[in-house]
Design brief:
single chain; alpha/beta; Rossmann fold; 12 helices; 50% helix
């Protein structure tokens, strides 16, 4: 039991660290704090278009919001606050749940203090003054929360006409049959469909945008491959001109990382094995718009 608890803590720390690193890279590359895939329809896949692709993603997501003004929205896993800022600009009241201290600081700056920010996980979140929401929004955060917690808890936080809006990656049935690690992530799409029924949720929209977001994987691989080429050149240079430094770094690298982790890193940098085609085969990137069965549907 203690081992399971320690594993869970380590996973949370790893996720938080990954988000913090993602924030740094996002601000460096695009000047913004978006931490999600892009929609690449009619866009050439390169770093110069990453910001435009991510903005297209946000516009697409917003199409599925209720056509109401002054909504109360809970942005669950709100990243660096870019989505919340857009929602605030549209006149909505926004609360953000963020598990990372650095992301929390960024979101506070991005929203100019206009959003309520809760530095916690959704699992540990308690609604202040029993506040209810028009929208519980999961934008690439749903996959990090057990479905048996996320769906019923979000349902309980909705007002009488509220919706759950989810935009995230899910594992397809082919992934379950694969014997190797494939690009993408998330809960099983089969499990998701089963849990929607289990928790008596009505499906207002179920949109598959896998093909539109899949080029994000190709761009990510290009970035890692470029970094791999740089490291190879540096390695060759050090081996020739700084032999002692080269061997010390090699020993240090082997000491701090386990063999499995080293293989994962080297595969990412040098194998070019992550492609949009594999992503589409093993994943479903979905937008779900859901309401509890006792909720008055709002388009």
């Amino acid at each position: 039991m203690n081992d399971d608890k320690e594993t869970n803590i380590n996973q949370k720390l790893s996720q938080s660290l990954g988000l913090d690193i993602g924030l740094i890279l996002s601000k460096l590359i695009t000047g913004k704090s978006n931490l999600h895939y892009g929609i690449w329809d009619d866009l050439e896949v390169n770093l110069g278009n990453l910001c435009a692709a991510q903005e297209a993603y946000t516009r697409t997501l917003f199409r599925y919001l209720p056509k109401k003004e002054n909504m109360k929205i809970l942005d669950i896993g709100g990243g660096g606050g870019e989505t919340a800022r857009e929602l605030l600009n549209k006149g909505h009241d926004v609360d953000i749940i963020i598990p990372s201290k650095e992301l929390s600081k960024e979101a506070k700056n991005k929203t100019e203090g206009k959003a309520n920010i809760f530095e916690t996980t959704f699992e540990n979140y308690a609604s202040k003054d029993k506040k209810l929401y028009d929208v519980c929004l999961f934008s690439e955060s749903f996959q990090y929360i057990p479905i048996d917690i996320s769906l019923p808890k979000a349902s309980a936080l909705l007002n009488k006409s509220g919706i759950i809006l989810i935009s995230d990656c899910f594992r397809s049935e082919s992934f379950m049959q694969s014997k190797t690690r494939q690009p993408g992530g998330g809960h099983s799409i089969v499990e998701m469909e089963e849990k929607v029924k289990k928790f008596s949720l009505n499906v207002l929209d179920r949109i598959d945008i896998t093909q539109s977001v899949s080029p994000s994987i190709d761009l990510e691989q290009k970035m890692f491959s470029s970094l791999g080429e740089i490291l190879l050149h540096l390695s060759k240079t050090f081996k020739i001109k700084r032999k002692l430094t080269y061997y010390l770094l090699k020993v240090f690298y082997n000491l701090i990382l386990k063999e499995r982790r080293r293989k994962d890193i080297e595969r990412r940098l040098f194998d070019n094995s992550r492609t949009s085609e594999l992503f589409m085969t093993h994943n479903k990137y979905m937008i779900f718009k859901l309401t509890p069965s006792n909720t008055k549907n709002v388009v």
